[in-house]
Amino acid sequence: MPAIGPATGPDFSPDRLIADGDGVGFGGAETVCVATPGHTPDSVCYRVGDALFSGDHIMGGSTVVVEDMSDYIASLEKLRNT
Question: Does residue 12 lie within any of the structural domains?
């Protein structure tokens, strides 16, 4: 993905790629990746127990820029049902 601004820091390669449903442990807590396309094709949210880290996929009090409305609605339903 091209950087919008100047890249800083050393080049790196990820240890592993994370996909929908993959879990990663952090300090005894399991963080689960939830693919949520719609805002952008590769949007993801993260669930830790009952907490959801949605980034800018869900915004209170403002609107979200949506690339594909049907994918976005399906992603919201997926989050509600998981």
Answer: no
* pTM for the model: 0.75
Task: Let me know if 78 is exposed, middle or buried by CB neighbors in 10 A (0-12, 13-18, 19+).
Answer: middle
Give 3's pLDDT tier (boundaries 50, 70, 90): low
Question: What is the number of domains present in the chain?
Answer: 1
Token pair in block for residue 82: 């998981």
Q: Which helix (H) or strand (E) holds 73?
A: helix 69-81
Nearest residue to 77 via CA among 49, 37, 42: 37
- The answer to whether 35 touches 82, Cβ cutoff 8 Å, is no
16 falls within a domain: no
